[in-house]
Amino acid sequence: MMAPAHIVVHYHELWLKRGNRRFFLHKLREALRRALDGIAVTRISKPADRLIIEIADAAHVNEALQRLTRVSGISHLAIARVLRRPALNDDPLDTIRAAAWEEIRSEQFASFAVRVRRSDKDFPLNAVAIEREVGGYLFDKLQGEGRDVRVDLKAPALTCRIEITRGPLLVYARRIIGPGGLPPNTAGRLVCLLSGGFDSAVAAYKMMKRGAHLSFVHFWGGGAEAGESSVHVARELVERLVPWQFTAKLYLVPFEPLQREIAAQAPDAFRILLYRRLMLRIAERIALRGGGKGVITGDSLGQVASQTLQNLQAVGAIARLPLYRPLIGDDKLEIQEIARRIGTHDISEQPFHDCCPVFQPKSPALFATAEALDAAEATLDVPSLVDRAIRTLSVLRYRYAQGKAERTDVEHTKAKHTTTS
Questions:
Q1: Which of 42, 32, 39, 36 is nearest to 10 (CA)?
Q2: Is 52 within 8 Å of 6 (Cβ atoms)?
Q3: Is residue 71 part of a domain?
Q4: How many whole angstroms separate alpha carbon 45 and alpha carbon 21?
Q5: DSSP state of 187
Q6: Total Cβ atoms within 10 A of residue 152
Q7: What pLDDT score was predicted for residue 421?
Q8: The model's pTM
Q9: Residue 292 near residue 190, CB atoms below 8 Å
């Protein structure tokens, strides 16, 4: 017979949502079930301000925990011992003390504390009394086994946590920090410019963590082999990011032919900025067609010449949708640390052909104005360039199911194209 396991999930900001809390909790429960697709879940219950997931077979609990650490909205989670409430004439602490001892006895630690949350105010003892009684019991048991362990209420090496709810009693000693943020798909749709480098993938992660659902646009040039093109890197990045939102589209735009036209007609110093303007217009067209509410970029203030305040303003002046720059105040080391944590760092480190430096000027402009870029674009048929990009792009679809990211289909766009300015 399979032994069940229970995972207690504490959510992050949802308790602040007041009138909208039910919507966010529904989305969180939906995300938990989607993340655990393929793992038998008996039930998800909600005693007070937490969720308890009952996994049918404890053999799958580690895989379940690994998947759940990529569900935004979770503050922390743990494998918990779920206890029945004591009978009326029983000592209410007997079962709790025994479970707490079983929870910590095989752990190695030099100091410990007991922390109690008591949401059931009818329970006969308050939180402080339970902490004192259970902590004293554990200390005596540890001393009896000859273990050199002390109580440390400020910075314990191990914390035994007890939660007294109106339903079950929960006991656990090891908890896993969750990603925080808001549940997936609660904030609307955005389009993210995905370069293949460290920055844009981290920018995407930060916005997905706030509940946004992203589509990705990648501009590529060069050959099709690894190292020649950046397409393979973009694909791998989307595969790594899709578990945060369960589905994703990757728009691949062949950009080099468009760059050649800009390089042939525009002033050298403005080339990079004009490339970025064109990318932004194309991304906006894609966003507007898909109901997107804005465009995300991986810009970090001052990191490269195109990211001075003046240049960011000059490029963004043509935007019709809001521009989101979640990395604007982060430095490269901070960005790379997050990239390591979410698993995109090594993907972005691969050699690839970046389309932006193609035909790059020796001295790019640092302090362009919107008016100067408007004048430089006057020699270009910008609406035609955008239309060509939309006609030639391809779309890859991804989904996350049964713990794996997979590509589901490829399509070429056949939509009706309107002119853009």
A1: 32
A2: yes
A3: yes
A4: 16
A5: S
A6: 15
A7: 35
A8: 0.90
A9: yes
Q: Tell how far CA 180 is from the center of its chain.
A: 9
Characterize 238-271 residue by residue with b for buried, 16 or more Cβ atoms within 10 angstroms of its Cβ, and e for exposed.
Answer: bbbbbbbbbbbbbbbbbbeebbebbbeebeebbb
Number of folded domains in the chain?
A: 2
Provide the residue range defining the domain that includes 114.
5-177
Looking at the domain assignment, is residue 184 inside a domain?
no
Predicted pLDDT of residue 124: 87
Partnered with residue 160 across adjacent β-strands are: 114
| Positions of E strands within 131-188 | 150-151, 158-164, 169-172, 175-177
Q: Which residues contact 403 (CB under 8 A, 6 or more apart)?
A: 37, 38, 39, 63, 67
Q: pLDDT tens digits, residue range 90-121?
A: 788 999 999 999 999 999 999 999 999 999 88
Same domain, 267 and 152: no
Question: Helices 198-208 & 332-342, crossing angle to 10 degrees?
Answer: 70
**Sole residue written with tokens 């949708």:** 321
- CATH of residue 220: 3.40.50.620
Whole-angstrom CA distances from 216 to 25, 65, 128, 134 are 27, 28, 51, 52
